[in-house]
């Protein structure tokens, strides 16, 4: 005969477990801030100047224990009223939910004739930006690839850095990363200290090749355009388990797409999707 007390205790335990799981899910959801459907305002709480026109902007979240809630590889939309018009631009935070509780950070290069980028440069501590998200078709999953090749130009390093930081922080993630990073001058190289730290601490997993348009005599990296030969020499060979990520100025991206096909990568689609061999941010 079945012990009814045992069945009752088992049922109570099951119900308690289900309730605990639901409460944990609700608690985690309450700690994430982003909302796809509505704009939210976040105040500027810090600014770190990197170059004469580039800085990392830190924005505070409503509560100190909250996180932005952005999947790795995705971006946010920033909206601002510029001269009476609502302008929207997309940016990838360089911060991760795992290392940025209570805030998030954006790497922004400001242009004299820019709209929102110039707006960022004029922000003062306490000023707010309007944000919606997450957005994007890419979401990084640990060990989803054996190797990832990356090509970035200027502030196009933002999504690459975010993904590299996530891989670096996860010892269980064995994905190998090769980055070719192009800039105009040596002073324009963004986050170089952080990028070099990845290589220094995990040299078998991270490789970086810097390229400049205008190089000093002491420069030991590459000079000029990112050619097919450069890609052959410094990126993984096209194969199953290999993905190429690209982010930078449109002319550079167009050139990289052509070069990638010439060395054996599949042709990039007009709009990149998660499973594409070449993904353009």
TrEMBL record:
Pathway: Protein modification; peptidyl-diphthamide biosynthesis. InterPro entries: CBR-like, Cbr1-like_FAD-bd_dom, FAD-bd_FR_type, Flavoprot_Pyr_Nucl_cyt_Rdtase, FNR_nucleotide-bd, OxRdtase_FAD/NAD-bd, Riboflavin_synthase-like_b-brl. Keywords: FAD, Flavoprotein, Membrane, Mitochondrion, Mitochondrion outer membrane, NAD, Oxidoreductase, Transmembrane, Transmembrane helix. NADH-dependent reductase for DPH3 and cytochrome b5. Required for the first step of diphthamide biosynthesis, a post-translational modification of histidine which occurs in elongation factor 2. DPH1 and DPH2 transfer a 3-amino-3-carboxypropyl (ACP) group from S-adenosyl-L-methionine (SAM) to a histidine residue, the reaction is assisted by a reduction system comprising DPH3 and a NADH-dependent reductase, predominantly CBR1. By reducing DPH3, also involved in the formation of the tRNA wobble base modification mcm5s 2U (5-methoxycarbonylmethyl-2-thiouridine), mediated by the elongator complex. This is NADH-cytochrome b5 reductase. It holds the Pfam family FAD_binding_6. Its cofactor is FAD. SUPFAM superfamilies: Ferredoxin reductase-like, C-terminal NADP-linked domain, Riboflavin synthase domain-like. The lineage of its organism: Eukaryota, Fungi, Dikarya, Ascomycota, Saccharomycotina.
């Amino acid at each position: 005969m079945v012990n009814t007390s045992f069945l009752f205790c088992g049922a109570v335990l099951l119900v308690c477990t289900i309730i605990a799981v639901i409460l944990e899910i609700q608690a985690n959801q309450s700690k994430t801030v982003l909302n796809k459907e509505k704009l939210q305002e976040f105040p500027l709480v810090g600014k770190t100047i990197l170059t004469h026109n580039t800085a990392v902007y830190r924005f505070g979240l409503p509560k100190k224990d909250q996180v932005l809630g952005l999947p790795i590889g995705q971006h946010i939309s920033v909206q601002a009223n510029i001269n009476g018009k609502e302008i929207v631009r997309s940016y990838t935070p360089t911060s991760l939910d795992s290392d940025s509780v209570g805030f998030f950070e954006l790497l922004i290069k400001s242009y004299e004739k820019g709209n929102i980028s110039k707006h960022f440069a004029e922000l003062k501590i306490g000023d707010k930006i309007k944000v919606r998200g997450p957005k994007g078709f890419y979401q990084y999953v640990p060990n989803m690839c054996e190797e990832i090749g990356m090509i970035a130009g200027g502030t196009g390093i933002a999504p690459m850095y975010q993904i590299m930081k996530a891989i670096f922080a996860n010892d269980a993630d064995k994905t190998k990363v090769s980055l070719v990073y192009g800039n105009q001058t040596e002073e324009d190289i963004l986050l170089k200290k952080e990028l070099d730290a990845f290589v220094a601490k995990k040299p078998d997993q991270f490789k970086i090749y810097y390229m400049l348009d205008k190089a000093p005599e002491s420069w030991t990296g590459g000079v000029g355009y990112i050619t097919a030969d450069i890609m052959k020499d410094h990126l993984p060979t096209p194969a199953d388990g290999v993905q190429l990520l690209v982010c930078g100025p449109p002319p550079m991206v167009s050139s990289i797409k052509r070069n990638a096909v010439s060395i054996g990568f599949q042709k990039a689609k007009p709009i990149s999707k998660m499973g594409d061999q070449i993904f353009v941010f």
